[in-house]
Structure formats: structure tokens, C-alpha cells
């Protein structure tokens, strides 16, 4: 018996979920390499559930930074998700109780982008894109994170497998599709230069935090969400 064919919105959501969830393998391995155990890694993915913030957190710890610097950097990078609610509110209302809490948890770059990629006059399609992508990424990201963490305990020194560079590569992979406009590209370039210049001068994690502040000051957070492609 053939499987039912998914509509374009669900197909897009599924493809984005699979592509994004795959990064969980690198995150899980890097997390245990940075000193967290499997349970802590699982908790970080379940509760924080923001790829950029999670990679920043373990990256700071892996570089020898303090827990405070790791938390500050991760939190600051995660603030952007809160702004997505402004664009989503028009077609996601009303949400109450547990449904509201669950919706807030899966409001991420990917779920927002897929939702807003649907026609403006199809609020039903936008809601489908949001929920299918958000829940899909959540399930796959957390499942593959566990696999990466378990494997990470067995491979020894991450530098022997090239995983010492995987955090930067995976973070770039998550961020690159968002740099669609020249404005975003310019701000990203400025922030990168600031981080590189400050790395030899400041403790681990602080250069990333300063670069993020520079990005906000330059108006990165004010860029329209609709410019985010997937």
C-alpha cells in the first residue's frame, strides 16, 4: 500500500527538519568533549533548543571559558527567538496553556521561516508549516543529539576526528542561510572581525558576546524575518 503523499508545506517542513536535526550529531559529540555528560547534553537540547545558542555554549566551555561566559553568550544569542513571536502572532492566535508553552518552545529560526514562506492569505498553511517544522526539528534534534553524545564518549580526543573545528562549521551551516540580505552579510562580517580581533585579548566566550552586541547595535535584530530563507 503506497504511503500518502504529503502536501508541499509538509514536505518542506520535513526536509528542513531532517537537514537541521542532522546537526545534532556534531552538537552531541562536541558537548561531551567540552565536559558535559550525556544527561546534561540531553537537558541542554531539550530545554534550550536553539542550535546557535547550544553550539555557542559548548564552544565557550570547550575553549576554556567560564560557565558564566557560556551562559551569557548562549542566552544573548537565543533572545532573537522571542522577536519571531511578533511575526507569528497574526496567524498563531489564540494559543493558551500547554499549547502556548509548546509553541514558544518550538519557535525557532526554521519553524518561523517555513511558516512565513507560505502564502499570506493561507493562515492554515502557515500554522501547518510552523508546527510541522518546529515539532519535527525538536524530535530529530534531540534524538540525534543523544546519538552524538553517546558516540562522543567513545571517540576520545575530538581533535583526532576533526571535531575541534566542527562547532564553528556547524554554527556556520546554521547561520549561512539567514544571510540573504546585504545588510545581514555586512553585519555578520563586522561581527566576525570584532570577534577575531578580541580573541587574543579577552577570556573565552567574551569576544563572541561582544560581537553579538555589535550585531544588535548595527541593527541585525531589526532585519525583517521574511528575509530569512530556508
Summarize the structure.
68% of the residues lie in helices and 0% in strands. The chain is mainly alpha-helical and 230 residues long. It has one domain.
Describe the protein's topology.
Blueprint: H1 8-21, H2 24-33, H3 38-47, H4 51-62, H5 67-78, H6 80-92, H7 97-105, H8 109-116, H9 123-152, H10 166-175, H11 182-198, H12 206-217
Q: Which radius of gyration do the C-alpha atoms yield?
A: 18 Å
Proportion of residues in extended strands: under 5%
Low-confidence stretches: 220-230
Number of helices: 12
Net shape: globular
Main sheet properties: none
Average residue pLDDT: 80
**Head-to-tail CA distance between termini:** 32 Å
Order of helices and strands: HHHHHHHHHHHH
Which class of secondary structure composition applies to the elements? mainly alpha
Fraction of residues in helices? Answer: 55-70%
Tell me how many strands there are.
Answer: 0
Number of discrete domains: 1
Protein name: AzlC family ABC transporter permease
Keywords: Cell membrane, Membrane, Transmembrane, Transmembrane helix, Transport
Subcellular location: Cell membrane
Family: Belongs to the AzlC family.
Amino acid at each position: 500500500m503506497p504511503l500518502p503523499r504529503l502536501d508541499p508545506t509538509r514536505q518542506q517542513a520535513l526536509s528542513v527538519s531532517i537537514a537541521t536535526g542532522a546537526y545534532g550529531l556534531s552538537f552531541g559529540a562536541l558537548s561531551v568533549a567540552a565536559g558535559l555528560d550525556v544527561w546534561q547534553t540531553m537537558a541542554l537540547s531539550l530545554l534550550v533548543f536553539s542550535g546557535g545558542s547550544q553550539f555557542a555554549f559548548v564552544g565557550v566551555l570547550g575553549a576554556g571559558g567560564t560557565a558564566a561566559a557560556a551562559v551569557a553568550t548562549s542566552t544573548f544569542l537565543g533572545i532573537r527567538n522571542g522577536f519571531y513571536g511578533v511575526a507569528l502572532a497574526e496567524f498563531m492566535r489564540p494559543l493558551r496553556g500547554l499549547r502556548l508553552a509548546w509553541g514558544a518552545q518550538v519557535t525557532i529560526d526554521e519553524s518561523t521561516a517555513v511558516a512565513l514562506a507560505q502564502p499570506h492569505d493561507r493562515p492554515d498553511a502557515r500554522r501547518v508549516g510552523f508546527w510541522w517544522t518546529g515539532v519535527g526539528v525538536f524530535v530529530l534534534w534531540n534524538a540525534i543529539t543523544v546519538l552524538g553524545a553517546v558516540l562522543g564518549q567513545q571517540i576520545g580526543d575530538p581533535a583526532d576526528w576533526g571535531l575541534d573545528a566542527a562547532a564553528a562549521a556547524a554554527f556556520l551551516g546554521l547561520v549561512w542561510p539567514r544571510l540573504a540580505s546585504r545588510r545581514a552579510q555586512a553585519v555578520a562580517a563586522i561581527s566576525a572581525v570584532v570577534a577575531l580581533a578580541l580573541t587574543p585579548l579577552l577570556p573565552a566566550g567574551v569576544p563572541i558576546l561582544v560581537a553579538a552586541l555589535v550585531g544588535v547595535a548595527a541593527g541585525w535584530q531589526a532585519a525583517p524575518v521574511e528575509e530569512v530563507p530556508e
